[in-house]
Amino acid sequence: MPNETKATCCTDDACCSPKEVTFKKTLSLTPVNPAVPASTASCCTDNGCTAEIKEREEEKGASILENGKHLEYRIEGMDCGACAVTLEKHMRSLPYVTDIRVNFSTGNMKIVHNTTPETIISEVKKAGYTAIPASSQRKAAKAPSSYSGISLMAVSGILLVLGSLSSLVQVPSTIVTTLYAASILVGGYKPARSAYYAVKSGSLDMNVLMASAAIGAALIGEWLEGATVVFLFALGTTLQTKSIERTRESIRSLMDLAPPEAWVKQGIALTRKPVEEVKIGDTIVVKPGEKIPLDGEIAAGTSSVNQAPITGESIPVDKQEGDPVYAGTVNEEGSLEIHVTKLVEDTTIARIIHLVEEAQEKKAPTEAFVDRFAKIYTPIVFILAILIMIFPPLFGWGTWEAWLYKGLELLVVACPCALVISTPVAIVSAIGNAARHGVLIKGGAFLEIAGTLQTLAFDKTGTLTEGKPKVVKVLTINGTEQDMLAIARTIEEHSKHPIAVAIMDYTSGQHLSSRQGENFTTIVGKGAQAIIDGISYYAGNLKLFQGLHAPTTSIEKQVLELQNQGNTIVIIGTHDTILGIIAVADAIRKTTTDALQKLKKIGIHQTVMLTGDNEGTASHIASTAGVDRYFAELLPEDKVAAIKKLQENNHVVAMVGDGINDAPALATANLGIAMGGAGTDTAMETADIILMADNLEKLPHTITLSRKALRIIKQNIWFSLIVKFIALGLIFPGWLTLWLAVISDTGAALIVIANSMRLLRIKN
Ligand code: ADP
Ligand code: MG
C-alpha cells in the first residue's frame, strides 16, 4: 500500500509519538488510490517528528520499567509528594536497585531489582512506609492496613493528655516533662525515622521539618509544645493518608467489577472456574442477572446487556449472536453462551484500569508548576528559619529562646504539604469519577484542557450519525437498474466505507451478485473505482464525476434535491456515461441531539460539524442535529485545516471522532476525543479522552467534571497559599504558636483533600 512507504518513518515505533504510531495503523485500514497521495501520512516526514523523536528518547529511560523485569508495589503511608521523592531516593541508593519510580498520586512503586521482594519490603519499611506487592493486592483488593501507626498516635495522645493534666495538679515537673517526652518519643518515632532517611537521601520533606521543630521545642524546654506538634502532626498525617487512600481505592474498586469466576461449558457439563484459567475460545455461560466475567462474542442467545459499568450508557444494549460483550457488564434478560475472545488480563476493563493508572501517574501542568514552586519555597524558608534563629539574638535584638521559637515556627510553616497536595488528589478523584462513568481521561493535562474548551468539532459519519447508512432511493439514468446496481456492488465490494457497506447490504437484499472486476481503488473523500470488462467504472459523489468531466449537468438538479433532504448521493457511471444515482441516508444518533443541547446549556461557545459529505446533506444534518456550524466537502487533510482555522485567536478546540478515519484531526486539535472505545482499539490509542460508549451521552458530564476539577484545583492552590502567608504573617507579631502552625499546615492539607474528594461524587 502506498501510504506505508510514505510513512516509512512511522514504521519505527521509537520514532514517533504514540499518536503518530496509531496514525499509521489507522491509515493502513483504508486502501488508498495510488493516484491520490496520502497527504496525511506526511506527518512523520516533516516537522513535528524530530521533536517527537527527542521526547521519545527521553522517555526511554522510563520505558526500561515497562520492558525489563520489574515488580510493582503499592505503597501505603505516603501523604505528601515529598514522601514519594524521599522513598524513591532512598531505594535508588541501594546497590541492588536498577531502576525505580514511586508515584504519589497512585501510591504505586515500580522497581527493577535483583534481590528478594522481602528485602525490598523491609527497605521500604525502614523509610517509614508499607509496601504490598501488586499481585497480592489484586487478589485481595483490600490489603490489611497497618494499625500500628494509629495505635502509636493514640498512645502519644494519651501521654500528652496525662502530661497536661498532671501539670495542672501539684506533681513534680520532672514527671510532667517525662510524660511529654514519652509522648514525643512514641508519636515521633515514625516521622523521625522517615526524616532520617530523607536527610540521608538529601531531601527536605515535612518529616524533617516537623522532627526538627519538635526536637527544637524540647531543646528550649517547650515540652508541651513539642508533644503537641508531634501529636497533631501524627493525627494530621493519619487522617490525610486515610482519605488519600480512599481516592486511590476508588480506582481499585474498578477491578472488582468483573466476577472472579465463570461457568465454563465443556460438552454439556458446566464447571465453575477462576477467570484466570479460562482460555480464548472457551465457551462460558452467563445466566440472567449475572455479570459477564470475560470479554467475548455471543455464541448463542439474545439478551439486553447493561454496559453502564464500562461505557456509562444509561440504556441497556440489545445483544444477539455475534455481538461483542465485555467483562463487568450485566446480562439482564436471557441466558447467554459466550465465546471468550480475551484473556482476563486483556479484557476491556483490564485495559481501562491500566490506562487510568497510567493517566494518574502523569503530572498535569499545574502540578508540575506547584512542585517547582515547592522545591524553591521549602529551602528558602528553611534557610530563613536558621538565619532567624542565629542572627537577631547574636546582635542582641531579643532572647535566644524567643528567636529560636520563631525559627521553629518557620520550620513548620516551610512545609508546603497542602499546596503540593492541591492538584494530584483532585486529578486522581476526577479521573476516577470519569472512569466510573465510562470516560477515560488519559492524564491530568487533558483534564485541564477539557476544562477550558470553547469549541467542539465533530466528525459527522459515525459520530453524530450512526455510521450505518442505508440505501433509500435508486434512480436509473442509463441501462437497467439491475446492471447499474451490479456494477455499484462490484466497485464497493472492496471498500470499507460505511456507504459501501450500505450498497453491499442493499444489493444482497436484491439477490444481485458482483461482476468480475479488477484494479479496485478508493478515491479518498470522493468515492471508489474498478475496472469491469476493460472499462473504468466509478461510484462516488458529484465532485468525482465533475472531475472526470462526465455529463453531469442533466442530473445535477435531481442530485441537489436528494441532498437537501439529507441524503448522501452515490453516482454510478464512467467518464462519459451516468448509469444511475443511489441515495443513502444515515440516521442521527438518538443521543446526539440531547448531548449537543446539554453542551450548549453548559456554555460551550460553538459546536461544529466536519464532513466529507456534500454541502446539501451537511446543512440538513447540521440543522437536525443542532450544531452551530459546519464545514462540508472536506478531504481528510481539509479536516486538519478546519481544526486549525477554529483554533485561530487561541481558541481551545476539541475534535470528537470515532478515531477510525479522523486520526489527523484528533491529533491536531487541542484535545482529541474518541468514542466507541469499548469496540475499537484504535480509538483507545489515538485520543486523549475516550468515551467508552459508542455515543456522545457522557460528553457534557466530562466537560462539567473537568471544569469543576479546574475550579477545585484553583481553590486549593489559593487556599493553601493564603493559609501559608497568614501563618507567616502571624509569626512576627508573635501571635502564632507552634501547635497553631502545625494545625495550619496539616489542617489545610486535610481541607484541600476533602475539597478534592468532592470530585469523586459529582454525578451528571
Ligand atoms: P465523512 O466520513 O465525513 O463522510 P469521507 O471522507 O469518508 O467523509 O467521505 C466523503 C464523501 O466521499 C462521502 O460523503 C461520499 O460522497 C464519498 N465517498 C467516499 N467513499 C465512498 C465510497 N466507497 N463509495 C461512494 N462514495 C464514497
Ligand atoms: Mg468518516
From TrEMBL:
<dbReference type="InterPro" id="IPR018303">
    <property type="entry name" value="ATPase_P-typ_P_site"/>
</dbReference>
<keyword id="KW-0813">Transport</keyword>
<keyword id="KW-1278">Translocase</keyword>
<dbReference type="InterPro" id="IPR008250">
    <property type="entry name" value="ATPase_P-typ_transduc_dom_A_sf"/>
</dbReference>
<keyword id="KW-0104">Cadmium</keyword>
<keyword id="KW-0406">Ion transport</keyword>
<dbReference type="GO" id="GO:0008551">
    <property type="term" value="F:P-type cadmium transporter activity"/>
</dbReference>
<dbReference type="InterPro" id="IPR044492">
    <property type="entry name" value="P_typ_ATPase_HD_dom"/>
</dbReference>
<dbReference type="GO" id="GO:0005886">
    <property type="term" value="C:plasma membrane"/>
</dbReference>
<dbReference type="InterPro" id="IPR059000">
    <property type="entry name" value="ATPase_P-type_domA"/>
</dbReference>
<dbReference type="Pfam" id="PF00122">
    <property type="entry name" value="E1-E2_ATPase"/>
</dbReference>
<feature type="transmembrane region" description="Helical">
    <location>
        <begin position="376"/>
        <end position="398"/>
    </location>
</feature>
<keyword id="KW-0067">ATP-binding</keyword>
<dbReference type="InterPro" id="IPR006121">
    <property type="entry name" value="HMA_dom"/>
</dbReference>
<dbReference type="InterPro" id="IPR036412">
    <property type="entry name" value="HAD-like_sf"/>
</dbReference>
<keyword id="KW-0547">Nucleotide-binding</keyword>
<keyword id="KW-1133">Transmembrane helix</keyword>
<dbReference type="GO" id="GO:0046872">
    <property type="term" value="F:metal ion binding"/>
</dbReference>
<keyword id="KW-0472">Membrane</keyword>
<keyword id="KW-0812">Transmembrane</keyword>
<dbReference type="InterPro" id="IPR023214">
    <property type="entry name" value="HAD_sf"/>
</dbReference>
<keyword id="KW-0597">Phosphoprotein</keyword>
<dbReference type="Pfam" id="PF00403">
    <property type="entry name" value="HMA"/>
</dbReference>
<dbReference type="InterPro" id="IPR023298">
    <property type="entry name" value="ATPase_P-typ_TM_dom_sf"/>
</dbReference>
<keyword id="KW-1003">Cell membrane</keyword>
<keyword id="KW-0479">Metal-binding</keyword>
<dbReference type="InterPro" id="IPR027256">
    <property type="entry name" value="P-typ_ATPase_IB"/>
</dbReference>
<keyword id="KW-0378">Hydrolase</keyword>
<dbReference type="Pfam" id="PF00702">
    <property type="entry name" value="Hydrolase"/>
</dbReference>
<dbReference type="InterPro" id="IPR051014">
    <property type="entry name" value="Cation_Transport_ATPase_IB"/>
</dbReference>
<dbReference type="InterPro" id="IPR001757">
    <property type="entry name" value="P_typ_ATPase"/>
</dbReference>
<dbReference type="GO" id="GO:0005524">
    <property type="term" value="F:ATP binding"/>
</dbReference>
<feature type="transmembrane region" description="Helical">
    <location>
        <begin position="410"/>
        <end position="432"/>
    </location>
</feature>
<comment type="similarity">
    <text>Belongs to the cation transport ATPase (P-type) (TC 3.A.3) family. Type IB subfamily.</text>
</comment>
<dbReference type="InterPro" id="IPR036163">
    <property type="entry name" value="HMA_dom_sf"/>
</dbReference>
<feature type="transmembrane region" description="Helical">
    <location>
        <begin position="716"/>
        <end position="732"/>
    </location>
</feature>
<feature type="transmembrane region" description="Helical">
    <location>
        <begin position="147"/>
        <end position="169"/>
    </location>
</feature>
<protein>
    <recommendedName>
        <fullName>Cd(2+)-exporting ATPase</fullName>
        <ecNumber>7.2.2.21</ecNumber>
    </recommendedName>
</protein>
<dbReference type="InterPro" id="IPR023299">
    <property type="entry name" value="ATPase_P-typ_cyto_dom_N"/>
</dbReference>
<dbReference type="GO" id="GO:0016887">
    <property type="term" value="F:ATP hydrolysis activity"/>
</dbReference>
